[in-house]
Amino acid sequence: MKNILVVILFVLLISIVIPLGISKTYNAIIEDKDIISDIKDMKIEKDMEIQLFDTKTQTVIDVPLEEYIMGVVAAEMPAKFNLEALKAQAVAARTFALYRISKYPNGHPSHPDSGLCNGVHCQAWLSKESLKDTHGKDWMLEYWPKIETSVLSTKGEIVTYNNNLIEPLFHSVSGGMTENSEEYFASRMDYLRSVPSPHEDGAPRLNGQVSLSIEAFINKLENKYPNIHLTEDNIKDKILLVNKSNSGRITQVKIDNEVVSGRDLRELFNLNSTNFKIYVLTDKDEIQIKTVGYGHGVGMSQWGANGMGNNGYTYEDILKHYYTGIDITNIHEK
Ligand SMILES: [Zn+2]
Fold it and tell me: What pTM was estimated for this model as a whole?
């Protein structure tokens, strides 16, 4: 006789965030809206250097801006991606760097010596020397010129909204629709709206799964939330979907008497996204959580950008698609 897995129930779809993978996502938190600086007030020298906090040596190093952007593009996006996607990443990386520096002129609380670090906390950066060490000579020969081209052909270009630098969040792959900023982070940003992302073919982490025993699942929840009390017998009745966002990601789930955000569940169970469904397989004593997408889903989808490039779109098309109502401005020509 067949044991059919009893699948259950709950459904959730969502997708959330997290980033690091094939590509990382900014560990960004949109904390407030009074950001920065009208770009007209910014003074950008042509040979501007970035004061970068090196998380390994715990020292500040000076790196020319455009050289810094090359090291970010190499660290944050696969170099095999379409050149237009790399160019979009370069403009986003330049925008993010200047955004951070403008927002934290006296240092970031996590690294007071500088507003910008070279870890995923801000945006990952690798020096040319470390890229040679990690990727080897053949990679450098094949891909470094492409990375240089992506940066130099967009030199000085940044993304603005109402003349202000944006916080250009991005993620690996959305699963078909990006997310409104306020559904995952604290603040609504008018340029971070949910949009379709139809060109994500080939993304290796489009679908993911986390499996654990029912007991382990219950223990994790009860350890974090003392008000939650579940048993194998009642678990199917005690987990209810409360809210999904319009993009299909789960924003709230009621577990026993506790309402838990999709983001918190994502972090607790290390899910690829908040676009998830929970299956209770009682005959296997297993919980399976299946996800669609990889990352928080807000802003530019990197795999979507690559697909747009492969379908003939330019980096400007890509940026304007994923960041609503923005302009692309050159800091040297403003
Ligand atoms: Zn940082």
Answer: 0.87
Centre of ligand 1 from the C-alpha of residue 130, in Å: 19
Ligand 1: centre distance to CA 120 (Å): 7
Cα 36 to the center of its chain, rounded Å: 22
For residue range 110-134, list pLDDT tens digits in order. Answer: 999 999 999 999 999 999 999 999 9
Which whole-number Å values give the CA distances from 208 to 252, 270, 293, in the listed order?
20, 11, 8
Tell me the CA–centroid distance for residue 171 and ligand 1, in Å: 17
| Per-residue pLDDT reduced to its tens digit, 271-295 | 999 999 999 999 999 999 999 999 9
Q: Report how far residue 44's alpha carbon sits from residue 50's, in angstroms, rounded to the nearest whole number.
A: 11
How far apart, in whole angstroms, are the C-alpha atoms of residue 214 and residue 233? 10
29 CA distance to ligand 1 centroid (A)? Answer: 11
Three-state secondary-structure class, residue 255: strand
Bigger pLDDT: 18 or 269? Answer: 269
